[in-house]
Amino acid sequence: MAKQKQVFFCQECGYESGKWMGQCPACKTWNTFVEEKVVTGAGKHTVKAVGSAPASILEVTTGEETRIGTGMKELDRVLGGGIVRGSLVLLGGDPGIGKSTILLQVCRHLTIDGHKVLYVSGEESMQQIKMRAERLGDFEKDMYLQCETNVDSMESAIEKLSPEVVVVDSIQTMILDDVASAAGSVSQVREVTNRLMQIAKRKNIAMFLVGHVTKEGTVAGPRTLEHMVDTVLYFEGERSSIYRILRSVKNRFGATNEIGVFEMMTTGLSEVKNPSEVMLEGRPINAAGSTVICSMEGSRPLLIEIQALVAQTNFQIPRRTTVGIDYNRLNLLMAVLEKRAGIHLGNCDAYVNLTGGIRLSEPAIDLGIVLALVSSYRNRPIDAHTIIFGEVGLTGEVRGVNMAQQRVKEAAKLGFKTCILPKSNACNLSTIQGIQLLSVSNVKEAIDFI
Fold first, then answer.
1. Helix (H/G/I), strand (E/B), else coil: 245
2. Which residues, other chains included, contact 178 with Cβ-Cβ below 8 Å and sequence gap of 6+?
3. End-to-end Cα distance, the chain
4. Which of 391, 346, 347 minimizes the C-alpha distance to 366?
5. How far, in Å, CA of 75 to CA of 200, rounded?
6. Which residue from 6, 228, 249, 312 has the least number of CB within 10 angstroms?
7. How far apart are CA 14 and CA 32, in angstroms?
8. 362: Cβ–Cβ under 8 A, 6 or more apart, which residues?
9. Window from 71-80, 273-282, 321-330 with minimum mean pLDDT
10. CA distances to 131, 263, 337, 410, 427 from 446, in Å
11. Distant-in-sequence, close-in-space partners of 14: CB < 8 Å, separation ≥ 6
């Protein structure tokens, strides 16, 4: 006879426990356990599974990988070249950032190219979707809408229509009748994703799943959801900004940490062909505390301005504020300046801003932050045609970074005349016309150059 029992799940890793715990013993996170009711002992029977036989890797043949173009080159770049049939793609982001908009645009391009698409929404009615779709342009007859939250009904529609691409908006609204818990719970999200994955692999259908995010910025539900899908994409950017960054944090069919840049317009999301040029528009010339750094996002070099403001503090404890970079990294770099370069910042407030609403964590931006702080502290501007990159160590050394050749080429293409870079990178670079290379081995040498 079926019985109900109370079970506690960790929302981060899916760990199951019979009682509530403050810290998860599996992933060591705090306050992530939620209570759910689970039905046990209902219709259990033993079936002998018949699996596939093991095969030597030399006997396995691989066919030519065919991808479906989305009609948006920036999205194709993030996906690794287009949509792979039978793949499961998870798209997360803050509410209102443009997840449903970009997927509707993808559906429109796919139907124009003759592909059959099914858009399943558990949050909006067909009329609401149609009103939003009319702003994006005309759609073809191969675009089908379904307002449903039951996965079994959605599977029946897939069997009937045989679409090539299915969009599920959103995964937290979908339910399975076999799971006795509310929609959006850990059990439902995990089991629904598992069922959709089986459908996608069996029918060779590409599926896009929209996921809500928590206040920490991660997809709501267990982290096992991210492990089950093939690709995880995140929308980044301030809601007050017109620019949106689509970042790949996991991709079984392409490079991770690849980004695509879009501009939010009244007619939908428009691609930004040259993000570096856009990010540098309107930057001040000959202003103290302003530097330009080059960061690699996947295989794309991205030039961004860093602004620093160093001023005498009016309080006993100086303030440190960052936008777009790690706060602890700023404190570390200021300590290096104090100890290795003799620049005393202990009685100064420091504010560092990464323009454009982008967040970067690459160590290659360290040298740009250091020189921006020194420039503001001494009130001496850095030449506007200078590009800077390099990792700074605790002893004040400037370490080499990857893909230096691509960084310098991007800077030369945008008209920069000088590049301050690590000495270890300069030794391995080929000559690039129109740009002078200034190699440094420590922070003091870099400060002397400016």
1. strand
2. 191
3. 78
4. 391
5. 21
6. 312
7. 10
8. 295, 296, 401
9. 273-282
10. 56, 36, 12, 21, 17
11. 186, 190, 222, 223, 224
Question: Rounded to whole angstroms, how far apart are CA atoms 297 and 42?
Answer: 50
Whether 421 and 390 have beta carbons less than 8 Å apart is answered as yes
Q: Tell me the three state secondary structure of residue 4.
A: strand
Decide if 236 contacts 94 (C-beta within 8 A). no
Residue 414 and residue 254: Cα distance in Å, rounded? Answer: 27
- Tokens 């910025």 locate to 217
In one-letter notation, the amino acid at residue 359 is R
d(CA 306, CA 421): 16
Instruction: Note the pLDDT tens digit of each residue in 80-134.
Output: 999 999 999 999 888 888 899 999 999 999 999 999 999 999 989 999 999 989 8
**Residue 105's beta-bridge partner residues?**
none
Where is 36: in which H helix or E strand? Answer: strand 33-40
Looking up tokens 């001040």 gives: 284
- Per-residue pLDDT tens digits for 308-347: 999 999 888 999 999 999 999 999 999 999 999 999 998 9
Is the peptide bond preceding residue 361 cis, with omega within 30 degrees of 0? no
